[in-house]
Amino acid sequence: MEIKTAFKSGYSEVNGLNMYYEIYGQGDPIVLIHGGGSTIQTSFEKVIPLFAKNRKVIAVELQAHGRTNDRNQDSSFEQDADDVFALLRDLNIHKADFFGFSNGGTTVLQITIRHPEIVRKIVLGSALAKRNGVPDWFWDFMEQAKLENMPEQLKTAYKQVAPNPEALQTMHDRDAKRMVHFKDIPDENIRSVKAPTLIIIGDKDIILPEHALEMHRQIANSELAIIPGGHGEYIGEITTLDSNFRESTLVVPLIEKFLDKKQD
């Protein structure tokens, strides 16, 4: 029988949003930021209990995702970064580690660029910083994005938790539009990242190995890990799960070793 990890949840009024969060465990804080089209659970359900054994885990849902409402304006990674920063201030968190997956990784990068004072260490899971970081077909796919092509697991998960399940279309459209108009993060911004950084991708990821390597070279205090598997398989993201799933394949020990390592 699966044992559920106890948590507390709440909402915070942040920049015109009623932003949802969950807090698990005790200890040094780590903030988890989900991928596009996702909820806290679809990205992180498998890893939260592991992180929560030793840390305070703060997981959030961004604009139009899951239980957080839409503010009736386009989504941006910069705005998401500012929203997370404001939420943490509301929760009296002044310094934290951050782990973002996929779009959440791009948001973590923006938090580190825009609000470095709140960042201790960051983990970028399958994060995109440049348009050439994914194959050309990705942009064609986004141009043609339709709700019916969204993974069923993500649609079901949204409907299970959203106050208004009909707003699924809004979430989809916000995410698709943001990616269609995605602009490269300038090199000087990436190089400005001083926080110790762990970059993770799968060897069959949407993110190209060359892109992860370029980020690793641009972020002076960074490490790079390429893990066997697809996009999010290394954290048990919901669309990657099958009967062969084993907790032992998750990268939590790798991340914890990085976070616990003393800096020179």
From TrEMBL:
<dbReference type="Pfam" id="PF00561">
    <property type="entry name" value="Abhydrolase_1"/>
</dbReference>
<dbReference type="GO" id="GO:0017171">
    <property type="term" value="F:serine hydrolase activity"/>
</dbReference>
<protein>
    <submittedName>
        <fullName>Alpha/beta hydrolase</fullName>
    </submittedName>
</protein>
<feature type="domain" description="AB hydrolase-1">
    <location>
        <begin position="29"/>
        <end position="165"/>
    </location>
</feature>
<keyword id="KW-0378">Hydrolase</keyword>
<dbReference type="InterPro" id="IPR029058">
    <property type="entry name" value="AB_hydrolase_fold"/>
</dbReference>
<dbReference type="InterPro" id="IPR000073">
    <property type="entry name" value="AB_hydrolase_1"/>
</dbReference>
